[in-house]
Write a structure and sequence with these properties.
The complex is a heterotrimer of chains A (about 290), B (about 350) and C (about 260).
Chain A: H1 5-33, H2 39-57, H3 64-83, H4 93-115, E1 130-133, E2 136-139, H5 140-162, H6 164-174, H7 176-181, H8 186-211, H9 219-233, H10 238-255, H11 264-278, H12 282-292
Antiparallel strand pairs in A: 1-2
Helix pairs in contact in A: 1-5, 1-6, 1-8, 1-9, 1-10, 2-3, 2-4, 2-8, 2-9, 3-8, 5-6, 5-8, 6-8, 9-10, 9-11, 9-12, 10-11
Chain B: H1 2-8, H2 10-28, H3 34-58, H4 67-82, H5 87-109, H6 114-139, E1 161-162, H7 169-195, H8 198-208, H9 210-215, H10 220-246, E2 248-249, H11 251-254, H12 257-271, H13 276-293, E3 296-299, E4 302-305, H14 309-324, H15 328-345
Antiparallel strand pairs in B: 1-2, 3-4
Chain C: E1 3-14, E2 17-28, E3 32-36, H1 43-51, E4 58-63, E5 66-67, H2 73-79, E6 81-83, H3 96-106, H4 108-111, H5 118-129, H6 144-156, E7 162-166, H7 174-189, E8 193-197, H8 201-207, E9 210-215, E10 218-223, H9 225-229, H10 232-239, H11 241-245, H12 248-254
Parallel strand pairs in C: 3-8, 3-9, 6-7, 7-8
Antiparallel strand pairs in C: 1-2, 1-4, 4-5, 9-10
Helix pairs in contact in C: 3-5, 3-6, 5-6
The chains are: A mainly alpha (about 290), B mainly alpha (about 350), C alpha/beta (about 260).
Amino acid sequence: MTIDIPALLVSAMLLAGLYATMSFGLALIYGVMKIVNLAHAGAMMWGAYAAFFFIVHLGFSPFLAPLIIVPLFFFLGILMQRFIVRRVMNAPPIASLLLLFGIWLIMQNIAYLVFSGDTRAITTPYTMMTFQMFGIAISVNRLLVFCVGILALFLLQQFLGRTYMGKAIRATAQDGDASKLVGINTERVMEIAFGLGIALAGLAGSLMALIFAFDPDFGRSHLLKSFCIVVLGGLGSFVGVALGALFLAIAEALSVLWIMPAMQDFVSFALLVIVLIVMPGGMMGLLEKLKKS
Amino acid sequence: MQVQEALRSWRPWVGLLFVLFLLWVPSSGIAGGYLQTLCFLTFLYVTLSTGWNILGGYAGQTSFGHATFYGLGAYSTAILVLRGVPPLMTMPLAGLIAALYALLWGYPCLRLRGQYFAIATIGVGEATRLLMLNLDDLIKNNTWLNGFLQDGVLTGGATGLMLPTPENISSYAVGFYYGAMGLMFAALLASWWVKNSKFGLGLFAINMDIDAAETIGVNTVYYKNLALMLSAFMVGICGSVYAQYMFYIDPQTVFGFPMSIAMVLMPTIGGIGTLAGPILGAVVYIVVQDRILTANLEIGTLKLSLSSMHLLLYGGLLVLIILFEPKGIVGLQQRLARWWKRRTGGVMARKTT
Amino acid sequence: MGVLIQGDNVCKNFGGLRAINKVSFEVKEGEIFGLIGPNGAGKTTLFRCITGVYPATSGKILFNGKDITRLMPHETCVLGITNTHQVVKPFPDMTVLDNVRVGAFFGRGWVQHKVKDAAKEAMRVLEFTGLAHRASSLARNLTLPDRKRLEVARALATRPQVLLLDEVVAGLNPTETDMMIALIRQLRDNGITIVMVEHVMRAVLGVSDRVMVLSFGEKIAEGTPKEVYTNPEVIEAYLGKSYAAGGAASQQINA
């Protein structure tokens, strides 16, 4: 069985960009609010279906769809935080976990109700195209998705680094009480952060819908991969998320050399459990420790 | 004196009546045996629910991966039966295998706190499902391990395993009805015993403040693992019963996330950490599922298959419960009782803060 | 009077921060040993090293001659050292009786078969600490002074040889403080050795037999209360150099 390693690695890189987009939303919400957003899976899945609706039913261009989906999901996220999630902020974290799990269940089953369990896919003129670079065939679809993802992340970085709200978000993530004391409206910050998190999930879902087939159960394995990436990267660290995404994508790609393709997901699940137990600080934590010694 | 007073209360009599009714159901043949099947499922799910509650309710460690134990129990029985072991003998073995697997991954994972443990259990659940799905292919080339294969099959992959069916199916089903009922009462008894024992007190202490519990002498690692193993044992036996009743198992059903979800939903909706909670939750779960699963709804041109409605309902219930009454149905009942007392108790029943 | 707890050059680091630096100490049987120092001195950290909540980075801690440095908190509890917490940690949804029953069931008393009936022992301890009338209340409904007493009662139910009290009078008014101090004296008279971390000088200096002072993780003084509060280094640590020279501080403490 001959495997084209360079092509594999390029493909993995492209996937890493998508994985990073998928995980940032989770990392943002966890970083700011210290809660694990299980509804992230639901938001990704709805993002996929929204893209499906806009592109296939309404005939929009695949690039227009994310432009509508992102603000829509942002607004949805704010509503969720303001009316539902906020009430359990003071309860033990497991309460918010269960709450968001309930919300995920609701989201998933509304999708089953409306769209049925059939697998969907979105095909665009770009789906089958590839082009050659340095003798490696690159799927145009994946490259475009990668670019959109990277663009989104770049914009996010700018937002977090340069705007007042962005800095307020980072401050609240580091110390909620101190932020309140310096006059930051942490309620607002959490709403925005949650909205952004859901928007990013929706964006990721709409992009992934262009590459993968999906059904209402779509979010789940991707949710676990996102956890894996966020934990790998060091919970709440954004650079870490990017690194974690790269690591996982490459690990998955290379794993095909040793294990069955059907077991590929096993890699991320096992990695998640192992990293949670062994490296709670993730890769960033490890790097910090290495820096100090 | 106390016994006389107890006998005067109506509750034990109603309970006894109900148990007698349950005992009579198979011979009654109501709805052509459908009620019997429904009751059997309820017994099984009450046991499952009670088992999960020991870890999730008493000890407060929420597991989203309990289907692992259900599946292991089912597959242990199936694999052993296909190799000639008498089915009933496989039951305790199934429970034991589930408990040992629990110890294997539980010991490292239980070090994680609340929400991280929950996430880890999702990971373990999915990883185990994938493993069982692909186990045959994984070991068929390994000369040492493939001795476990029988006709090239250990777990049967996606097609699952089929067990031989007995001659007289209906008396077999009746036997299982009473067996499951007995199992349920045994589980409830065990749960009641745990709740009132030193073990249970330790679990509740761990649930409410694990650091305080540790400094006051509770060996938290030991007790958490013990609760996990007991819970796994009970759920594993249920899996075994399922395999013996259905004669067919596949990884999607017994190891699937929906099964894990069910085990979280039932006690949480019924009343987490209580004795009656898992029972109520299981009954609600089965009844709702039964009524809704086969229904269909037409709104205008939209034809909605309601087969997913029950999960939608549970999702909604879960959200409402977390937001407004974390103690579930039992909590609601307690609130109603207090409200009733205030209304009818007069001057004496004053609200205490 | 033998030495119960012996700390030998105990160090505790958190990453790059050295919280406790080579602290050696002895706690003698039957005494009330005070542990004071400015905030952040490492007092609670030392407690946690003794019980095992934090593993000491280096150094040794001996209890009755036995090395307990690497033991888990529940193990040190069963051996005879129980601590209370600075911020009280009751089991909120349990009754007061059940809270104390946990201590009775899992502590040294039960393990050494001195306690046979946990509920009875719990009631006994509640009566001793004056909480018997609240036995069936939920812990979450208690006032702060009662919660503090519950914390002590629960620890008592383990039948400890040494009781580590972490700021047990913090947040109490003078009357409540006096009641707590009286309780502590009673405990000592009943044979329990006490180590108290405290900020309220009136409380700790009035009742302790000996006192140790920590500052920035190091031991800066040890001796009788009087020796300690007239020690210029101690005064400097608390109030700064300008007070160390004058007698203003010792007047404060005597008041």
